[in-house]
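Appendix B. Chain record.
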Amino acid sequence: MKIRIIGLPEEAAQAANLLTRTFDVIEISGPMPCRGASRNVRIYAELRLPQPAE
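Structure tokens predicted for this chain:
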């Protein structure tokens, strides 16, 4: 699954970090500035649901 996180740099980084605690992370991009005069950044994450323990 793919998720886009948008927020202030500190918020977006914290949200990306929280995703690593819940999902199996395939890839997380670095922060990219949003268009215009926004102070927000975008972070893209590709994740998969964790496999249940057997």
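Further analysis of this model is presented in Appendix C.
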